[in-house]
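TEACHING EXERCISE
Course module: macromolecular assemblies
Task: Read the component lines below, then compare them to the predicted structure of the full complex.
Student: A.B.
Group: 4
Components provided:
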Amino acid sequence: MMIKNMVPVTKLIATFAFSFWALVMHTTIPLIILVAAELLILAVCGNLQRNSKAVGSLAVFAVFLGFVQLLGGGSVESAYVTGLRMMAMTVVFIILLTTTRLQDLTAAMVTQIKIPYEYAFMFTAALRFVPDFIAESKAVQEAQACRGLSVKGNVFKRMINYMSVIQPLMLKSLSRSETMALSLELRGFGSQQRHSFMSNVQPNAMDYGLIGGMILISAVVIYLRIHGIV
Amino acid sequence: MEHIADISILEFHHRQGGQYRWITVSTLLLAIATILRLVSPSVAGFTPNWAIAMYCIAIHLTKPTYKQSFGIGMVYAFVGVLTSKAAFPYGDFISEPVAALLCCFAVKHLDIIKCKGHTVLPAFTGLICTIISGTIFLTTFKLALNIPDSVFFNVMLPAVCIIGLINGVTTPVLYYPAEKLFAMRGIIDVKSEEMEVSDHSRFKLSPLREGLISMEHLSYTYNKKSKPALDNISLSIHQGDFLVITGESGSGKSALCMAMSGAIPHYYGGVMKGMVFVDNKATTQVSIADLVCHVGMMLDDYDSQLVAMTVEEEIAFSLQNQGIAPNKIEEAIEHALTKVKLTAYRKREISKLSGGQRQRLVIAGVLATNPDILVFDQPTSALDPEGTRDFYQLLHDLNVNYKHTIIVVEHTLEAVLPYANRLILIQKGRIACDGDVVTTLRFMYENNIYATAVPQVFACQMTLEKAGCNVGDIAWLDLDTAINSLKQCCPNGGRIAC
Amino acid sequence: MLEMKNVNFDYGNGVPILKEVNLTIGEGEFIGLGGRNGCGKTTVTRLLMGLEKPVQGDILKDGKSIIKQDASIRSRFIGYVFQRPERQMFRPTVAQEIAYGPQQLGMTKKETGEAVAEAMEAAGLQKLAYAYPPNLNRGEKQRVAIASALAMHTQYLILDEPTSGQDSAEKEKLMMLLTKLNDAGLTILLITHDMDILAQYCKRVIVMGHQTKYFDGTPQKLFTECDELMDLGLTRPQSVTLSMAVAGMKYCKSMAEFQDEMIKRLGGNA
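Instructor-supplied answer key:
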């Protein structure tokens, strides 16, 4: 699909564009159209099912925000605007993150947006350890349970007990960080200025076209806002 | 260019390294923060903000620069947005970096506040950074979404203060054990180290002996220690060797490995005397990164060496670090996968691999740069007997079919000796014996140096010989040889005079 | 006495792990638990400890069902030493680390102090009382974990591959400690892949195979009479293989025994 063929940098620009439009628009109908467009894009990519829980909870939160606005003395229109604007600014992030492979995203951020490689590395390496640490935290919990740690008791007691699960986990990670720091040097990390990537994230004609289109729409939106239409 | 007459007195001083410690500590604490967000218990709906606590601890421990702290804040924000589908991502991208910068400032300039000898700075940063971060986040949230003032001032800000107080407690509670670990492990603050760093670039150094690796009168003392870990070691390693290094714990085996890859002296610091030549290059004249194509190392905690999400990215890592073109990386990945027999797992995620597969992946990652020499520091401590057998079978394959030189540090010798051509015994930093397997085993047994590591069957043969029994001339290096010898010397049972 | 009666277990995905397992562990026994990877030996110990619940069947202590008690309650009488003991350590000294268990059980400060001192003496850790646990070597950490369980006054001790990753000298030290504790009355259940340990130290061996308890008897019976050793993922200890290669030699449970017998046989001087 077209979305899949867009390179990450185009999707990043699209994310900011949609959020910009959501900020500029301040009447209900245009925002509804914007949110519907985003949900449509999500469905077309085939990711609506997978993210339905996240979108659902965001929708609930949007409604909650609307109520907060009403209670705080705002008009009904402003309540709708608040809720819809929040939906518009967050659903587009879900689109970005579920349709882009992480390695492509990091490649784009380093080569095109010029973010230093160290930070892209931190990002992917942290995610790589998350499943391991989940398993590890379960193992630590079991080990402490075998030494009498109970899960019952009031909240304060539970917080204190939980420290005896977090602390070993943290200490083990810090030991690991030493080995990892040495291992990075042994694998030439940071030795060259130019870091190469396997993914090809160069934008092509379609991408430039879409970016151009988005700039145009942004100009139109600003124009319409100045004239009070959106 | 100066010439050196006697290399054994040439010294090299280096401060403790670890330039990427700030990255690894931040990364691993970020992973912890991510899972804590998912499983943490809450008090009336309020949970500690684990991300802020973790990056405050990371900044306290590694003391990064302002730019690095800013980057840490951004990465934490991004991972937070990714994993928790946050309700307002933009707020995070502003609040976390600012709070991280604030923490960095506090660590650099406010370290003088002490109470009973312990610094109370972590409590302070935990509290203030959480409140500032929360306030910035909520302010951007309010401005973007037009939240009414009453809600902002009466509900949101007090909530932030409560979470700030919770963090003001959790941050120091988690920081003190971490600080103690760093102190007890001797990981000191790199930047405040005053030690001079030697420069050998003006010397012309060349090895006296042939060999892929030549160590000449190498002595080494770890940073801030008085007793040397290695004492006047001279040894050469030749192409195609399968060398096993053994000795009691603390005898210097690991130090010897580290000296081969340049980690000693560049990473561990300290004082090095004599010289190590890898492929005719002196390790004091090159950096660790220059030796990557010659020596590949597998450390004893192999899980920490895996840093990517999938198998192919892991193998590509070393090559991408060197800026190699994508098509060459393709070839190297395929080649490495074939060597370790993981080709079918190319697209698999690392978290779905078993322990033995992960170890093979680490080897593949190291093989990517095609080093001649592979060094393994106690590789089988986490494997069961079957896994150990498979592992050494793989090393044998790499040694014989792909002509790699293999160096293994081991204390359980049974599984590895059938493939080795050379065994070195280290005792108190010196080489006690260097020869083929049988010679060194005999030496260990007869001189009772680390004799408990001598394989049981061989030790049995030595004991029987010592008691005057004739059990044949062939060395009992494996069970089958022993059985054959026994069958020959005691075919009928009953007493046979020796 | 601990019993498992007709226990069935699976992870809910239809693949049975254990079927109709019946097992009795008497007081004072020294039992080795073996079998190939995935045979269910770790699962058996986890069911006994309360880390998993059987799908069917019952677990009893001294005749009373303990199936509703979770691990933290069963920790009063069963101790579990995991394969990676450093996972549970976080206190600054060994003594404080060992004190964790008694504190969780609600013992007073005085009782805790006594329990810790006794446990350290039993495990030979007096010299390391103020050492920093993460800096200890593998064998010492293992002993701290054992002492942590002893301080809770357990009657049964389950150990999951305690000697993995250790060299022969450390293995021997650890097994001598376990033998000493067993002589003093502690019941020990040891999961291991090491055939030498099964032969030399265990008085009874249980082998899990084909989703149930396949063998239950003495090590001698296992290594001399069982035909399906390979099938069950086991091998013979080297001393036993060597003794079987010599005609007329008796069963030798350790290399030392084999050496003595050979020297007697061949008439040399010891």
